[in-house]
Amino acid sequence: MPEAASAPVVPAAQDGPAAVGDSEFDRDTALSRRAPGVYDIDLSPGWTIAGAVNGGYLLAVLGRALADALPHPDPFTVSAHYLTASQPGPAVVRTDVVRTGRTLSTGQASLFQYDEDGREVERIRVLASYGDLDALPDDVRTAARPPAIPAMEQCLGSQDGPSPMAGSSAIADRLTLKLDPATLGWALGTPSGKGEMRAWFGLADGRDADPLSLLLAVDALPPTAFELGLKGWVPTVELTVHVRCRPAPGPLRVSIATRNLAGGFLEEDAEVWDSADRLVAQSRQLARVRLG
Amino acid sequence: MPEAASAPVVPAAQDGPAAVGDSEFDRDTALSRRAPGVYDIDLSPGWTIAGAVNGGYLLAVLGRALADALPHPDPFTVSAHYLTASQPGPAVVRTDVVRTGRTLSTGQASLFQYDEDGREVERIRVLASYGDLDALPDDVRTAARPPAIPAMEQCLGSQDGPSPMAGSSAIADRLTLKLDPATLGWALGTPSGKGEMRAWFGLADGRDADPLSLLLAVDALPPTAFELGLKGWVPTVELTVHVRCRPAPGPLRVSIATRNLAGGFLEEDAEVWDSADRLVAQSRQLARVRLG
Description:
4 helices
């Protein structure tokens, strides 16, 4: 809204929820196409946790580039390997079309930033297969059931107390994250010992979920490691998301579980459910932990 | 053993189990390095199901190429996107070192075959991060428990009855696969309706498991779709494996579960447990189903 002299600096909540395509998330994942398959972006400091750019936000940036590069619109499965830690600031995304099929197409994308000498340093590389969620049959034979999570009013967000996370957490202002009190023991110094984390998830400006924001949702909760009594940074080595259904409007429920913490690594399995009780995304990541 | 005139054509079981490095699996995944990062292989017809080359075998071929190309020996996480169906016969693998770090290195590999005009056609592309399993701390805080599966003697293999699979299934001769009768209803025309498959897994010539053969193990069972009442081919779109621990000698237990069958796709989550009750590998794949 730069042309309106009276435009508010912060999206005004009183104007109603932000629309898909015109929201903080959309602006901060928007890319500028420099050449075919080459995109520039300024990584926003708004999606950082303790100074590090959130891995789900990066995945959404790469997902948007591939949606432009591939003939199919929706990420069906995206596999990301995280190489070096991203910083807010300029980045370039390079995409490569691997295969184009009738119902699926596959692409590759890498995000680079620059070292002090201006050389490109690769941050993250993804392989992804895209399709058209709207072209899928309606058939649902799932045995999966939505996670047991209390009503949103009984869950707790960053507005409900001082942040238990060390360092600044800009992303907290961009999300409406309401955690199940049963998975909040870590914040009170009494982690449950179970590798579970559950939350209601939304974008703070009210933008509804779409396949791209699901890539953010799967990596936006505090790490399950906190409930296992571990502290500190849990960097992602690899994360794969499956988007299974276009999400209905309304808040999402995200449930994350860790079964196996061993040898300094753990997996995090996430499920994302929409307001229509559909399982809209599944993800698994391998992450490193510091054993205390 | 080509120099021994009396060498048996088939590895002789009476000579004891095949050793790691000298087994059917090792010979059929062995690559010939043509140039740095370029490897030739003749894909064996011995690992096919109804004429199609098994996806886990292909993953092991790519995994072996990357173990040669990268400075670290063991696959920690391998993400594969399957592009076109592989056939037995000549193939070339091209690897690319993405990043080399102290404890992890990341590489990319593609397997190509040839069309009628001799042009390369890409079959499968992987991103993988490798490390050294022996360098990991012994710390285990896992909450995961081994699958409930009957003793091997109570489980059923291809020797225990006519194959319920249509078409030839050469891979059945290479594996010792003993299925939990509770997940064999499909073979009797009475699928359970639960998306579960469990089996004891070994290589038929007695070769012990290693990280490379775990890449095979996660994709060697009949599809869970059969127990969901579906028939026919369930092609993998994407498969990611995490190898979490070097497997102990002895048979493996593999447990596969599907929670979400919807829109013509399903996920298969596999766990592989070794004889020391360690969770040695986890995988998830997205596969397409024909809805009947």
